[in-house]
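Your task
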Amino acid sequence: PAWGTAENVLTFNNSLKMKLSVIIGLVQMGFGVLLKACNAVHTRSRLDFFFEFVPQLLFMASIFFYMDFLIIFKWLKDWTGQQDRAPSIITTMINLPLKLGQTKNQTGAWPMWGELETTSQNQIQLVLLLIAVVAVPLMLIPKPCVLTRS
C-alpha cells in the first residue's frame, strides 16, 4: 500500500496500534460486564442486575462503544477529496459532553456523515450523552441506599 512507503508510516502505525488497543480493551470490558450479568443472574440478585449491570452496559455502550463505532466508521469511509473534512475522533469525543454532541462550528469536528447543517450525528450524540448521564446515578445511588436500609 501507498502508506507503507510514506514518510509518516511511524505516525500511522502508532495511530493504528492505539485504535486497535482501544477496540480490544472495550471488547474485554464488555466481556467483564457480561460476566457481571451472569453472576447477578446466578446469585439471583436483582439489585446487582438492574443497578450495576444495566447502567454499566448503558454507559459503556453510549460512550465507549460509540467511540469504537466512530473509529471503525472513519476507517471504512472513503475520505478521498475530503481529507480536510475528516473529523477528529478525539475532538468529537471531547465535544460530546462539552458541546452536547454538536459538530457544527467546532474546529476539527466535522460530522462523520451528512453535511454540517443536516447531519443526524448531533441528535444521536445528544441521546447517547443523556443515556450516559442517566446511567451514572443509577449505578451509584440505589444499591447503597437499599443495602443501608436492610
In short: Residues 75 and 111 are 14 Å apart (CA to CA). The chain has a mean pLDDT of 87.
